[in-house]
Amino acid sequence: MPATRRSPMIRSTVLSLLIKTMLVSGGGFRAPGYDADPFDLGQPCTQKGLNLTTDQQALEDFRDSLSEPNPLKDLWQGPACPSDGAAWKGILCFYDRVAVVNLEGKKLIGALPASFANLSFLYLMDLHNNHLSGTLPPIWSCMKQITKINLGNNKLTGTLPQRWSHMTALQNLTLSNNRLSGTLPASWPNMTTVNTRYSLSHNLLTGTLPSNWSTWQTVESLDLAYNRLRGTLPPEYSNMTRLKEFNVQGNSIVGHMPASWSMMGNITILNLASNNLQGWLPENLPTKLYSLDLSHNSLNGTLPAAWSSISNMTTMMLTGNSLKGALPPGWSSLSNLNTLSLANNSLTGGLPGEWSNMTQLQGLDLYQNHLGGVLPPSWHAMPNLLNINISQNNLTGPLPLQWANLTKLSTLDLQLNMLNGPLPTSWAQLGSDRKSLTDLELSFNQLTGTIPLDWFAGVSSLRVSLLRLGLASNSLRGSIPPEATNAGGQHPLEIIIAPMNGPGLCGTIPPNVNATSQGGIATTDASGLLTGGLCPMPDTSKQLSKTAIAGSCIGAILCAALATALGLLLRQRQYMRQRHHSLGSNSAELVTFTYQTEAGTLKFEQGRDGRRVLLGKGSFGKVYKARWQGLLVAVKILNADDTSQQDDFRKEVAMLEGLRHTHIVNYLGHIFQESGEMMLITELMQGGDLGTRLRNDMEVPRRTGWYRQGCYYALGIARGFVYLHSRKIIWFDCKPSNVLLDHSGMLAKIADVGLCKMLAGTHTETALRGTLGYMAPELMGYKHDGDESHTRHPVTMAVDIYSFGLLLWAIITGEQPRMHDESLRKPKVPDECPPRVMNLYLACTALNPQHRPTAFELMETIEECVAAGQGF
């Protein structure tokens, strides 16, 4: 790319921008409103002797300080600002002085030069997306003309300089994606320039939000996302009258959203997601707000009906909280709403038909709530809908024929409900305007009938764009239409067809169709036929005689009566068998039990052998697959031999009911039978457990990429620890088999919280709790060096940290730790294992509990690794 020439057009264009914030006087730039010496701050800032020669020297010093490979070594030769011809690449000069330094993305390696403070005419500096390191030079506060600094996406460290508050012309500062630490400078509100935008996201900043920043009357945008900020949201920030955008996502902010913030008259974007906010949603919001993100906090209460008055709202994200109650019908007045996400809450009631007035809505996510009722036919009037996810709810009734009018749809996920009836032929029109429908997920419902031929025939059919069709766990019959072979264009269509209630689909799989199943169940037999076998031949007779019809009717009635009598007999025998055998016996497993609870019916899933579908077993009992309130769930039947444990069970259940966190398996309910049977109902984690993954792929821990993935698992567990320990709850049983993964295999969740205490007593007792090999030494009475006390030490949160360290051992080596194994103290580390993994492991497994990191320190360390884009 040729160097920038100082043509009259360029000079005129850029100069017009400079004049807005600078005054040209006597051949030099001055900041507006300054007297003869605007640099006199009691610091070494001076204009004396600064000229083109000192500008050139500052640039040459920077060039020469860079490490190899140095792209500027050959490019920056000769005069930086020649009187005629081209300036250096990335440099723009005016009146023989350097005004712009733009070296974005040049792969520069080195430190920020303090000598740039001598560039007294510098207006814009862009060094983002390089490999620059070191600290931010405080002396840069002498750059009085600078209006924009972009140092994002480098490797900068150190703190934010207090002295930078003297950059009174600065309008735009970007320091995101670095490794800056320390607290937010209290002096920065002294920056008086209007229209200021500050981006400090993805760093390691700590401390609280300074309350005196409420006096910062000129700032319009503050981005502090993904740091380590703590404390509460200052109510005083309602005085920041110019603030339009505020983002503190991904910190550790606690407390509630101040009611006074509804008075922030100009705020338009507010992002408080992924913190630890609690309490009810505020009744009122700022009137100009159009984007609100409160997702992944601990907010509770109901959805405020008064929010319907925020007419400018386009994006509302409330996913991953503990919200309850119904969907407000009055929100239909949010006519500009584009995206609405209320997933992973505890919302109840029906889907408001009035929401069809949200004609601008494109994305609707109501996944994993307790919503019931039918799919509103009136929603067909939302013409701009692109993505709908209402999976894992309690929806009933048929699929609305009218939804065929959703012709812009891209994805529709209705799985894990109780929808019934046939697949509408008219749904061939879904996404037809843009031929955009790629994913249609209807699995785990009660749908019947056949797959409509029209779905894959014709110009406007689904075959044009569809890539994934989920139909498993319904009661469908018939064949897969041969026309499905053309679906998805160049990519084969994936149809999830197994398991299927009843005989299942018949015939063979068409070419270019990938028929798959849930849980690895076979979709065809050895001959290539689907589970329903050969499809029956069509009846070619044109008419049946009355005698034949009568005979068929009588035969059908007799068969039905015989089947009913046989079913009653078998049910009676199964009931007697259930009463005379224990829960762990084989005969009991042959029965698909159904339990009636106050919250609904619990029905165990039944395999082809007539047994319950067993998901796993351990020291606490067995885990089965079941359906409850329309959801597929996991049911743990506890081994409770002592009736005195029943009180402990009730206490622990009361504790579990109050837990809700992204990285803790959701507790959904329980059943307590007079016979002593104790069942815990939790969400179903379809990705299995971490222990199984380690066993199934022993070579994975040897690859460097595995440590990066392991880092994400560890971060999820650490965040779960922070949540539990903040509530004085000890897990006691941290091990790979108790870390469950979602269907993607990426999200890790803590399982079996409270079970050790439930079946072994409270934490004040001396009984062993946990799993040998992962158990902290103090739980077994071991003492560290120098401990001469004769009493057992109280159990603290540090026992979880010790077990976490041994879980890292399993990730590193792919092996299970063993008690008294000397290699645990001096492990043989694979060459590919990053050193940070071992440092973290050794810190967690310190014999002295007081020397182990806290859960929060553990989380901070792992978050630093994630922020650096590395493994541990």
Automatic annotation (TrEMBL):
<dbReference type="InterPro" id="IPR000719">
    <property type="entry name" value="Prot_kinase_dom"/>
</dbReference>
<keyword id="KW-0433">Leucine-rich repeat</keyword>
<keyword id="KW-0418">Kinase</keyword>
<dbReference type="InterPro" id="IPR001611">
    <property type="entry name" value="Leu-rich_rpt"/>
</dbReference>
<keyword id="KW-0808">Transferase</keyword>
<dbReference type="Pfam" id="PF13855">
    <property type="entry name" value="LRR_8"/>
</dbReference>
<feature type="signal peptide">
    <location>
        <begin position="1"/>
        <end position="26"/>
    </location>
</feature>
<dbReference type="Pfam" id="PF00560">
    <property type="entry name" value="LRR_1"/>
</dbReference>
<dbReference type="GO" id="GO:0016020">
    <property type="term" value="C:membrane"/>
</dbReference>
<keyword id="KW-1133">Transmembrane helix</keyword>
<keyword id="KW-0675">Receptor</keyword>
<feature type="domain" description="Protein kinase">
    <location>
        <begin position="609"/>
        <end position="866"/>
    </location>
</feature>
<keyword id="KW-0547">Nucleotide-binding</keyword>
<keyword id="KW-0732">Signal</keyword>
<dbReference type="InterPro" id="IPR032675">
    <property type="entry name" value="LRR_dom_sf"/>
</dbReference>
<protein>
    <recommendedName>
        <fullName>Protein kinase domain-containing protein</fullName>
    </recommendedName>
</protein>
<dbReference type="GO" id="GO:0005524">
    <property type="term" value="F:ATP binding"/>
</dbReference>
<feature type="binding site">
    <location>
        <position position="636"/>
    </location>
    <ligand>
        <name>ATP</name>
    </ligand>
</feature>
<dbReference type="Pfam" id="PF00069">
    <property type="entry name" value="Pkinase"/>
</dbReference>
<dbReference type="GO" id="GO:0005930">
    <property type="term" value="C:axoneme"/>
</dbReference>
<keyword id="KW-0812">Transmembrane</keyword>
<keyword id="KW-0677">Repeat</keyword>
<dbReference type="GO" id="GO:0004672">
    <property type="term" value="F:protein kinase activity"/>
</dbReference>
<feature type="transmembrane region" description="Helical">
    <location>
        <begin position="548"/>
        <end position="570"/>
    </location>
</feature>
<keyword id="KW-0472">Membrane</keyword>
<dbReference type="InterPro" id="IPR050647">
    <property type="entry name" value="Plant_LRR-RLKs"/>
</dbReference>
<dbReference type="InterPro" id="IPR011009">
    <property type="entry name" value="Kinase-like_dom_sf"/>
</dbReference>
<dbReference type="InterPro" id="IPR017441">
    <property type="entry name" value="Protein_kinase_ATP_BS"/>
</dbReference>
<keyword id="KW-0067">ATP-binding</keyword>
